[in-house]
Amino acid sequence: MGSKNKLKRFNQNLTFSNVIQPTREELVESKFSLKGNWNKIFFKNNNPIVLELGCGKGEYSVYLAQEHPNKNFIGIDLKGARFWSGAKESLELGLPNVAFVRAQIELVTDLFEHNEVDEIWITFPDPQIKYKRTKHRLTNPEFLAKYNSILKKDSFIHLKTDSEYMHGYTLGLLQGMGIEVAYAHHDLYSNPHAPKEATAIQTYYESIYLEENKPITYLKFKFPE
Known about the structure:
Layout: H1 3-13, E1 19-20, H2 24-28, H3 38-43, E2 49-53, H4 59-67, E3 72-77, H5 80-92, E4 98-102, H6 108-111, E5 117-123, H7 141-150, E6 151-161, H8 164-176, E7 180-185, H9 196-199, H10 204-211, E8 217-222
Parallel strand pairs: 1-4, 2-3, 2-5, 3-4, 5-6
Antiparallel strand pairs: 6-8, 7-8
Helix pairs in contact: 1-5
């Protein structure tokens, strides 16, 4: 994508009513007014909140918002030029239950209050295979603690990835921490009993991986009380 096209998308994001772009200062200094008030101020209902972390183009957020009008969906990514397409599509479809936030995932506890979120999807994150970048891996213990903080009791986290390394790392970590794994498969689409929620929609990158015959892995888990 050229810089001119990126700039155009950034400018359009500023006009989209479903795009929120808080500054880092707002978040770390607890000045973000939507924290703890997403249902009251933004969605104006009491429906469950579902997050898509590292949402890319926002395919999951848009699809799930259409399928579940009684839930609210929020896609989060630092690259606004990517989720521009999801934000634009959801506005064109007239979906009142989807929003996109430009922010770093590490600040998720500055975006949401304790027990404010009902479900999390992590779709095709960078596996961060290099050891020195482990701290940025979205399922490392530090990130898991953040998710546990904002999630309500008995809430699920879903992880889809083409990285067997990321799948294995996360599965081993969860088992070692005593976190309940509800479903795990190293080749999702080869399993005739795969849950529909994991196969009904494919992201842009997922469709490319499938064309290359790369297996897609899937994990569904929740924290113990």
